[in-house]
Structure formats: structure tokens, C-alpha cells
Specification:
The structure holds two protein chains of two kinds. Helix content of chain A is 50%, strand content 7%. Chain A is an alpha+beta fold. Chain A folds into three domains: 57 residues, no CATH class; 75 residues, no CATH class; 140 residues, Alpha-Beta Plaits (2-Layer Sandwich), CATH 3.30.70. The longest helix of chain A has 19 residues. Chain A is elongated and about 85 Å long. Chain B is built from nine helices and no strands. Classes of the chains: A alpha+beta, B mainly alpha. At the A-B interface, helix 1, helix 3, helix 4 and helix 5 of A face helix 2, helix 3, helix 5, helix 7 and helix 9 of B.
């Protein structure tokens, strides 16, 4: 068999197949072809050695993948359940906004709308279509808000946040911007906290005592973190921002009140682990590349006597800070 | 987990069994995370994409026809979600073809560098893998790290088998330039 053309073809075929000879996934005929050729081709022999070395190097890399986190699973299941209820997935909206370079307003979450991706006619048609959805039927809103888990509602609120904050700014006048407590006269602090309570809590009196028992975390993001990245991380915690940004970029995140006491028994499975406990949230936050700093705010992760932690804002008026 | 176990998990997920879904999540998390990270090099993107992948599995488990391995199907979903996420990040002047050349996705120096990325970049191998395109890197990882046959990789990626071989061919050539000592034996031929 002295057919040079066949030899060249065979050499090229074998050369291409070597990686799958190395990982042992070739079928019998091709494996025999490779082995037969290797017997007489030193060039392929060298290449085989290189492929094996690459395979070994790749497999010997330090395994850097983390284990799944209960918060991530909980968040995933929320998206699953939201999908099962027929609500449009907000990540689809994010992708849509990226594709068209526009914000997707919360109104378009309604599941009885035609597929947004199917509209044609360019940006103008989209804008018209969305404008028409800014005042959806009340039925749709109550279905969304009533049956929607908090993070989704929070995300919807986030989409309209600019409008809300602007309205609040107009209503409350100047110097109401959320900031950690800095030295101010008691009266201004009291009025500022009253404004603060108006922005963040429906009923100042009812909320005042319970707010103090919710755990809070002070966190700082990396400078280059995008709003989208911050939003996704914050949504995972199911908390809400109650203070910040400070001039140095610190935010205060308030977590939901823990369902049971801090001394919960260790959970057997991932799904049962308490996703809302402060420790779990802290671990999650610190694992995020965009989070530079995350610490519990002193005096908030257990029931009070301490009325005010440093910089924390509560419903009741705070004494002047030193 | 055996392949039969995985088949039955997918069947149960098709019937909207939440427990089966969580089992699959736990079983595949690190593999998919690892795979997505190696493709995208963006640790914070990986979690979002991973959840997107899981959501597709939830919605489409009923359409898994059982003719390929569950892992092939799952990695196929992960591959496409990763490529889509990368495409959304790409600068307009970059193109993602298979030519043997510089990386097709930008290494964004403003991105916060996660510990994972820094560890990868600390090694010559890690830097070399960054120097090939995402499509080429996918084939290399799927072959040597995840152990797929070239036919399965074609199914994962959704391309002809010849394209798989060509991408691997170009990747090998580039890696040989960047890693000249890899696999070189000491004896004189």
C-alpha cells in the first residue's frame, strides 16, 4: 500500500482525531486507524504527547467552582414559580432592554401581553407599544403585585424607582437625601427620620418598633460594579436598601425579620438551609466579586435594647451623633 | 449519578417535580459553573447564566428526546447561553469567528477581577486559554475536561463535526505556540 495521497489523507485525518483518541471516545474503526498510523508516524507521536500533556494540565487545574449556595437555589426556585404562574421572567426583560437599548418598564411584565420579541417595526413601535402598557388594567396589576414574591415586586419598584424618588424629592423638599447620620441638630434629625420613614415604611407608628429588629448589613460595592450587577446581588438577599450611598459608597441593607430564632438547627439539605439568616447572607455577599465589604450593623441582628447602631436609621428619632 | 438516574431526573422535571429539579441543580452546579466560567471568564456573569440555564431545563425538560445523553443536552444549553451572554458584552468592532488569532472577547480591565480570574491568570495555562476564542476554548474544555466525543461536542455546540475538528485544530496550534514546553519529551528522537 504505497499510495502517497492516501497516506497524506490518513495522516491528516489521524492528526485531527488525536484529541479524542486521548480522551478515549473514538469508536473502534477510528481508534484502529489512529493506532495503525501512530506506529509509523513520529510527528503524530509528538503531537499525541502534546495532546496528552494538555489533557493532564487541564484536569490538574485547581478546581475553582464553588458549591451551590442556598440563596441561589432559593432565588432560582422563585423564578421557576413565577414562571409557572405565567409571569414573564425579568431576566428576559433585562435581555430585551440590552437588545433594544431601552429600559423595559415594569408594566410589560403582564403575561397576557403579546411576546415583546415578536413585535416588528423598530424602536418607535416598541415605544408606542410600551407606552400603551403604562396604564394596564387593574386586574393585571393586582395579579402581578398580589401573587408576586417580594424580590420581583422590588425589581418592578426598581424600574420605577427614578420616578418615585423624584416625586419624593418634590414632595419633601431639599436636603432629604438618604445619608448616614452625620452631626445634625436633634430637630433636623427627627424631621429627617420622619421623612425617611415616609419614604420607606407605610405606617410610621406601626413600623417603628419592628424595623429595629430586622438585621442590617453595611456593604460597599466595587467601584466598577454596574447597577445591573448590584441589583442582581441585592435581589438575591431579599433585603432592601434602607440607607446610603454614603460619600464613600456604603449602603445599608435591611434583611427580612428572621422567621425563627437565630438558634435554628442545622439543615440537612440545601433547600432547607435558612436562606435569610444573616450569616448566610453575609457569606453570599462576601462571595460576590462586586462586593468589597459586607459587615453586620452592630445592634441590628438581635433584638434591641441598643436603640441605634452607628449610622443606622430607625423609625424613632435618634440622639445627635458625636 | 448514573446516566439512568439523569434520564429519570429529566423525566420527573418534565412533570414539574421540584425535588428532581433541585437534585439536578445540585448534581450539575459545579460542572456547569466551571464550564461557564471557562467560557466567559466573568465570575459574576456565571451565576446569572447558570440560573438561566436551569430555567431552560425546567421549561424544556419535556422536549428532551432522550436520544443524546442528558449531559450533552444540558451542556448544549449552557454553551448557547454563554455565547449569547458573551455576544451581549462584545464591543461592536470585534467579531467571533474561528480564525486562529487573538481573543475575540475583550479582557475588560475595568471589571473587578474575582479571585477565580486572578488564579487562572496566575498560570501560564490560564493565560494561554484566554488567548484562544471562546468557541475554540469550548471545544478544548469539552474534550479534555468534560470528556465528550467530537460527535457529542457537535451536538452540544450545534455545528458540523468538521467544525469541531477544525476549531480544535486551530486551538492546538495556538496553544502549542503559547505553551512550547507542554508535552515535549526529553529524549532525543
Amino acid at each position: 500500500m504505497n499510495d502517497p495521497e492516501n497516506d497524506v489523507e490518513r495522516h491528516e485525518s489521524v492528526w485531527l482525531l488525536l484529541p479524542w483518541y486521548v480522551n478515549d471516545t473514538l469508536e473502534t474503526a477510528e481508534r484502529r486507524l489512529v493506532e495503525g498510523h501512530l506506529a509509523s508516524c513520529p510527528s503524530c507521536g509528538d503531537e499525541l504527547a502534546r495532546c496528552k500533556a494538555l489533557a493532564t494540565a487541564l484536569r490538574n487545574r485547581q478546581e475553582t467552582a464553588p458549591s451551590p449556595h442556598p440563596i441561589q437555589l432559593a432565588r432560582l426556585m422563585e423564578r421557576v414559580e413565577a414562571g409557572e404562574r405565567g409571569e414573564r421572567d425579568l431576566r428576559d426583560l433585562d435581555d430585551l432592554a440590552d437588545d433594544h437599548g431601552q429600559e423595559a418598564p415594569g408594566a410589560s411584565v403582564a403575561s397576557d401581553q403579546p411576546g415583546l420579541g415578536e413585535q416588528s417595526g423598530g424602536p418607535t413601535a416598541h415605544r408606542r407599544g410600551r407606552a400603551g402598557q403604562l396604564a394596564p388594567p387593574g386586574r393585571t396589576w393586582s395579579r402581578i403585585l398580589g401573587g408576586t414574591p417580594r424580590p420581583v415586586v422590588w425589581a418592578l419598584a426598581g424600574q420605577l424607582a427614578a420616578m418615585v424618588l423624584l416625586a419624593a424629592a418634590v414632595a419633601l423638599g431639599p436636603a432629604h437625601r438618604l445619608q448616614p447620620a452625620s452631626p445634625t441638630p436633634a430637630s433636623r434629625v427627627a424631621s429627617r427620620n420622619a421623612e425617611y420613614v415616609t419614604l420607606s415604611a407605610p405606617a410610621a407608628g406601626a413600623e417603628a418598633t419592628s424595623v429595629a429588629t430586622r438585621p442590617q448589613i453595611r456593604l460597599v460595592f466595587a467601584e466598577s460594579a454596574t447597577e445591573k450587577q448590584m441589583r442582581h446581588v441585592l435581589l438575591s438577599t431579599r433585603g432592601r436598601l434602607v440607607d446610603g450611598p454614603s460619600p464613600l459608597g456604603a449602603y445599608t441593607l435591611e434583611l427580612p425579620a428572621p422567621a425563627s430564632a437565630a438558634a435554628a438547627p442545622p439543615r440537612a439539605t440545601l433547600a432547607e438551609a435558612a436562606p435569610d439568616s444573616v450569616g448566610t447572607v453575609l457569606t453570599y455577599l462576601r462571595s460576590q466579586p462586586i462586593v468589597r465589604f459586607a459587615e453586620p450593623v452592630a445592634g441590628t441582628s438581635s433584638p434591641p435594647p441598643a436603640p441605634v447602631g452607628q449610622g443606622a436609621a430607625h423609625g424613632s428619632p435618634a440622639p445627635p451623633q458625636p | 449519578m448514573t446516566r439512568d438516574d439523569e434520564f429519570s431526573l429529566l423525566r420527573r422535571i418534565a412533570q414539574k417535580d421540584r425535588g428532581a429539579f433541585e437534585e439536578l441543580y445540585t448534581a450539575y452546579y459545579r460542572r456547569i459553573f466551571s464550564y461557564l466560567f471557562k467560557l466567559t471568564r466573568r465570575a459574576e456573569m456565571v451565576e446569572e447564566v447558570l440560573n438561566d440555564v436551569m430555567l431552560v431545563i425546567w421549561k424544556k425538560a419535556a422536549s428532551f428526546d432522550g436520544r443524546s445523553r442528558p449531559s450533552t443536552w444540558i451542556f448544549g444549553i449552557a454553551y448557547h447561553k454563554a455565547m449569547k451572554a458573551l455576544a451581549q458584552r462584545r464591543l461592536p468592532e470585534q467579531s467571533g469567528d474561528d480564525r486562529d488569532r487573538e481573543p475575540s472577547e475583550p479582557v475588560d480591565h475595568d471589571e473587578p477581577e474575582s479571585l477565580m480570574v486572578r488564579r487562572e491568570l496566575a498560570t501560564t495555562l490560564g493565560r494561554a486559554l484566554l488567548a484562544i476564542s471562546a468557541e475554540q476554548r469550548a471545544v478544548v474544555e469539552l474534550t479534555y475536561y468534560h470528556g465528550f466525543s467530537y460527535q457529542e461536542i457537535a451536538a452540544v455546540v450545534g455545528c458540523p463535526v468538521n467544525t469541531v475538528k477544525t476549531r480544535m485544530f486551530h486551538a492546538r496550534r495556538r496553544l502549542k505556540d503559547l505553551l512550547p514546553d507542554l508535552g515535549v519529551s526529553s529524549h532525543v528522537g
